[in-house]
Structure formats: structure tokens, C-alpha cells
Protein 1
Amino acid sequence: MHFQSTSLSDATLIELQPFGDQRGMFARTYCRDKFMAAGLPTEWVQQNMSTSANRGTIRGMHFQRAPHREGKLIRCVRGTILDVIIDLRADSPSYLQHEGFELSDGNKHQLFVPPGFAHGFQTLTDDVEVTYLVTERYTPLAEGGVRYNDPQFAIDWPLPVSTISDKDAAWPLFDSLHPLAL
Ligand SMILES: Cc1cn([C@H]2C[C@H](O)[C@@H](COP(=O)(O)OP(=O)(O)O[C@H]3O[C@@H](C)C(=O)[C@@H](O)[C@H]3O)O2)c(=O)[nH]c1=O
């Protein structure tokens, strides 16, 4: 696996190293030693998956407030997504910057999302499945979010929004958040 830095401090794109043969392909998706050497987390407490039926669906932009901030390792195992992360760490050189990454069953890239980032994605195909590891347990009282179309970030979503949860459509704008809400 190859670890590539991104425009956002500590966020890492991980390319798998595939071994192909007549049966198909093998690759490690997680390797404790390599993650440790790359300075990435090695303790994951949940593995989650979601499916989304329609192209254009948005989930996000989500985070958990301190002290429950989560690191996430995202992979799209069916279809294609644009995965977007926003650095919300006030002490970071990339504070308030965002970047999008195409993750698909074709490229098999994984994205490490550091604690303190907001995370979300838009499906670019129908029938998408995403799986991710997280470093903290789900803590509903610590759930937070910022609106996917917050003008502060002006994320360039590639498709019109076809489907979004009521919760995600109603997250506040970043401007209105108290610093303790992060
Ligand atoms: C995230 C989560 C949700 N749930 C429940 C709550 C709710 O009833 C149902 C669906 O939850 P949500 O609507 O929050 O699911 P979803 O919008 O897919 O939430 C996910 O979105 C992506 C973008 C992320 O970054 C994830 O960390 C997570 O926040 O599942 C759990 O039981 N455990 C969990 O870890």
C-alpha cells in the first residue's frame, strides 16, 4: 500500500498494492505495521457500511465533537463516490480547507480522515456501498455536522442532489457554530 499526502494536513490517500493472478486479485486493505509506520491509527473500534440507491445522494458533512472525535478509513466497495473532507481543527495549517477524492470499486483507493474533520460524500453512480473503520464509538450526543452547501466552503458537488436525509439538510452553517460545537 502507498500512502500519499493530500492538500489537507494529516489526511492521507491510500493506494492498495494489488497482486493479480488468474483467479483475480489480492490486496491488503489494512496493515497494522504499515499504518503504524505511516503514523496512522491502529485501533479501530467500529466498522460501518452504508448503501445508497441513487446517484446524486449526499451523506454528510459529519463529525463527532471532542472528546469523541473520530478518525475514519473510507473505502467505496461498489460504485463511485466523491468523498469530501473539511479540516475543522483550529490549530491546523489547513483549517477550513476542503478536498474531494474520487473513491470507487475500480480504483480501490482508501481515504484516512483525521479526527477533527467533517466528512461526507456524494454518490456518482446508483447502488453504491461504502465501508469504513472508525476510531471512536458512535456517540449520538456528540454528533455534529455542517451543511453540505454551506457557502463558507462552497463544495463543488458534481451532481444535483437527488437524495439527502432531513438531518443532513438541516445541519447549521459553520458561521453559526460555537467553537465548543466542534
Ligand atoms: C453512524 C452510526 C449510525 N447509527 C444509526 C443512527 C441512525 O438511526 C442510522 C443512520 O445514521 P446516519 O443517518 O447518521 O447515517 P449516515 O448519514 O450514513 O452517517 C454516516 O455518514 C458518513 C458521511 C460518515 O462520515 C459517518 O461517520 C456517519 O456519520 O444508523 C448507528 O447505530 N451507529 C453508527 O455508528
Note: The chain has one domain: 43-181.
Protein 2
Amino acid sequence: MRGIGDGTLPVERFRHYVRQDYLYLVDYGRLLALGCARAPDLATMRRFAELTQAILVTEMDLHRSFAADWGVSEAELEAERATPTTRAYADFLLRTAALGDFSELVAALLPCMWGYAEIGERLAQAGPPAHDGYARWIATYADPEFQALASWCRELTDRLGAAADPAGRARMHAAFAESSRCELAFWDAAWRLEAPAG
Ligand SMILES: Cc1ncc(CO)c(N)n1
């Protein structure tokens, strides 16, 4: 992340990250769409629809723009093979969405939004790097709209946590912790240029 902030990140690591992140975002979009379907009220449904749109359109446009810069087509991005780390993270999210309750789903999606909002904000405060692509990456996550969606996710998690019984809260904690571990592993996998599964 520091390498994105100061423009020194070797581009092969960034490329690896963008290609795997594209696959990740497809499933993250599915998670949000499932959240939309399961949301307890219409106002929450609308937010989930907005979140889904923000990921599948705005955020993935960023990835598509990088791919275009590298002469990589959208179809090639989609055809990329997932690494074990990408697969494990996406499987965990979708398993939680399929088998857990709405509160667990929300706790599982929070580290993704919160982590990137935090990184985007901090790197933006330090000023844009000389590298155009990395500056674009930072601007996407520092954007007030992304920041607002991340804040809303935090508030929703707090509300659901306050309303949950101790066992429900423990399940939320577990989902949040597992997702946070997956986030860290995802950065590390790009750094190591992890090979695709199978
Ligand atoms: C792995 C990962 N987590 C969170 C985000 C932010 O949506 C992202 N693009 N990728």
C-alpha cells in the first residue's frame, strides 16, 4: 500500500492485484446483491443496490481502465484464473451470505469497505503519487461517495450488533475477523505473485 502511495510499487505486483481483484469483485458484487435481497427494509435494500452499483460499475470501471491501459480486454480479465487466496476469500463471503443471517453478511462485508476507505483516505492525505494509475486508484477509494458508503456500512454493523443477542454478536465478530484475515492475505498474495489454483 505504501508503494501505491509513493508510486514505487512494481507494476507486475499491481497487475497481479488488479486481475485477481477483478475476480474478487464479481463475487463481492454477488454478496451485495444477496444482501439487497435479504435486507430487512426497503431503505436498507436501496443502500445495498447502491453499493452493488458502486462495486460492479464504478469500482470495476477502474480495473477495466487499467486493463485497457495494458491492452487487456474485459473478456481476458473475466477469464483470469483465481489464486487459492482469491478463491478462499470469495468462498468465505458467499458461504456466509448463503448460510449466515443478515447481520453476519454485513459483518463479513465491512472489512472490505472500511479497509479500502481507510487506505484511500490516508494515501490521499499524503498527496497523489507521480504514477497516474496509482493516483487514480487512490482517488477512487478516497472519493466522498465511497467514504460515505463505508461509513454507512460501519453504522449498519453497529446497529445490528447492538440489536443482536450475545451468540449473534459472537457470529458477527467471527465473520468480521475472518474477513479481515482474508483482506490481509489478499494483499500478501499479490505481493508474492501467488500462482492460480489448480
Ligand atoms: C480484496 C478487496 N477488498 C475490498 C475491496 C474494496 O471494494 C477490493 N476492491 N478488494
Note: The chain is about 85% helix and 0% strand.
